[in-house]
Amino acid sequence: MNSTTPNLQRQFGSDNYSGICPEAWKALEEANKGHTPGYGDDPWTDRATNLIRDIFETNCEVFFVFNGTAANSLALASLCQSYHSILCHEIAHVETDECGAPEFFSNGTKVLLLRGENGKIDPAEIEKMVHRRIDIHYPKPRAVSVTQGTEVGTVYSISELKGIWSKCKSLGLRMHMDGARFANAVASLGVKPREITWEVGVDVLCFGGTKNGTHVGDAVVFFNRELAREFDYRCKQAGQLASKMRFLAAPWVGMLENGAWLRHASHANAMAQLLHDSIKDCPDVKILFPRQANSVFAELPPHVINGLRERGWKFYTFIGRGGCRFMCSWDTMPADVNAFVSDMKALLAVKSAGTAEVDPKFYGRK
Ligand SMILES: *Cc1c(COP(=O)(O)O)cnc(C)c1O
User: Fold this and answer.
1) Contact at 8 Å (CB) between 79 and 54?
2) Which CATH superfamily is domain 261-350 in?
3) How far is CA 141 from CA 84, 93, 138, 195, 254, in A?
4) Which of 103, 53, 56 is nearest to 76 (CA)?
5) Phi and psi for 169 in degrees, rounded to 5?
6) Are 116 and 125 in contact (CB under 8 A)?
7) d(CA 265, CA 183)
8) CATH node for 22-258
9) Per-domain residue ranges for the chain?
10) CB 95 less than 6 A from any atom of ligand 1
């Protein structure tokens, strides 16, 4: 294969490796007819906003931005002053994968890191962090950011979220939710969206569309509407007010109006379950986290990792605390999982040559 030949093989690298799902694509095509006003003053943005209000069963404020980094950073900036701090898990995307954007867009709000099992914040850590320093020389804690589902493919239960909320309430902290994989969490828990957001104290949710099947565009959903004041100006200043906004909004209409968002998320979760169940009992494979959303994390011998990559499979080995991350998408097929598992098993059957290292040439951009 030469470099101009497209490689059409579906991969386990990320849920943003996949394309646009048919429902989003169809809505984009419809939105492409005729003229309509720009900057969100159009019927598609209206419909998408109202569909989001319907699924959350509340009158929230909704804004569409280009990606999750912008959504998180601008949402967090709206919760804090520059002399405040944001508490999040030590492997949270806002800390490890946003190039300092939350600090940048909030003009210096410090991000403080909390520990907890399985990628989830331990509520006791919130209290410890807040009480660690209460003098004027240290940034004042103002918000907690939780990721639902987490960076390691786990999901907070309703009662775990309530545990965090009760600390937030008693300590005067606002609550932000990074929901890049919110759909996968809702599908996994089988709950109503309200039960894991505003009913458990979430002030603002960054609702991911891209990994769920749209082309681009995440929604910032303010349940605490007061905090949304002038958020439109914040978006515009940050270069996040889309001129042809209807193309950020239309895919949401396609995804939400007939439940495609949950169907796709359930499907991706089921593919991860299939992968998990197919490899969990293999000798030399160690599953690292409970499989709750659309990913499987596993430790594999280095020669197996290298061998899979030599056979053309793509996946990351640096998320969370290492190990391999295998991510499923809305379009992952059982045959893709089976082909991948069969290559893995063939490689596992060949004992390691000894001290193979994971080949550094495979490290690169996410
Ligand atoms: C993908 C992702 C985001 C958003 O990333 P962008 O590349 O900026 O869209 C945010 N949080 C988590 C947990 C993610 O996995």
Assistant:
1) no
2) Aspartate Aminotransferase, domain 1 (3.90.1150.10)
3) 6, 19, 9, 26, 39
4) 103
5) -65, -50
6) yes
7) 6
8) 3.40.640.10
9) 22-258, 261-350
10) no
pTM of this structure:
0.95
What torsion do the CA atoms of 199, 200, 204, 209 make, to the nearest 10 degrees? -80
The sign one gets for the Cα dihedral 129, 133, 134, 139 is negative
Nearest-angstrom CA–CA distance, 39 and 132 = 44
Per-residue confidence (pLDDT) for residue 183, from 0 to 100: 98
Q: Tell me the residue type at 344.
A: M
Q: Prior bond to 201 cis, omega within 30? A: no
Q: Let me know: does 119 contact 321? Beta carbons within 8 Å.
A: no
Q: What values do phi and psi take at 61, rounded to 5? A: -95, 135
176 ligand 1 Cβ < 6 A: no
**C-alpha count within 13 angstroms, C-beta hemisphere, residue 337:** 24
Residues forming a β-bridge with 175: 144
Asked if residue 323 has its Cβ within 6 Å of ligand 1, the reply is no
Closest Cα to atom 3 of ligand 1: 68
pLDDT in the model for residue 351: 76
Ligand 1 atom index nearest CA of 92: 13
Contact 100, 108 (CB under 8 A): no
C-alpha 69 to ligand 1 mean position (Å): 6
- Phi, psi (rounded to 5 degrees) for 356: -55, 140
> In this structure, are residues 28 and 21 in contact, taking their beta carbons and an 8 Å threshold?
no
Atom 14 of ligand 1, residue of closest alpha carbon? 180
Mean pLDDT of each 10-residue bin along the chain, 366 residues long: 65 96 98 97 98 98 98 98 98 96 96 97 98 94 98 97 98 98 98 98 98 97 98 98 98 98 98 98 96 97 94 86 89 97 96 63 50
Side chain identity, residue 11: Q
Ligand 1 pocket check for 184: Cβ under 6 Å? no
CB of 269 sitting under 6 A from ligand 1: no
Structure tokens at 60: 């929230």
Other CB atoms within 10 Å distance of the CB of residue 261: 29
